[in-house]
Prior knowledge:
This protein is an alpha+beta fold.
Amino acid sequence: MLAKKKTLEHPKACPVKRATYLAKLNHYIAQGFAIVYMDESGFESETMRPCGYAPIGSPCIGSYNWQAKDRTNVIGALYGKTLFALNCLKTNINKKIFYHWCKFTLIPKLKRKCVIVMDNAAFHKNKRIQKY
């Protein structure tokens, strides 16, 4: 066996949905909307190992706990190369915390006529958040 760098593949990744997303995003850009990307990230004391073992000629596929409990979380937004609306939290982000961040931190700092791009975290899909 040969040590290889792992490739992490999210189990719900879909190339068709990705193409649809890119087409929709390009449509908004063509209409002059500012594109604002937002995401959460975290810091933890225990991280995944970047290398593993696989037979020669085979990829080394690893697994990871995507739920990421017990860590320090950061949430923020990016417009162009400007990072803004940053918050650092000692708790996991849920729909209540995310809604509060959107209402009191992100939305007041946004330019008019913009599109907020976020991933498929369950709390992003909350109807109250989508409506707001």
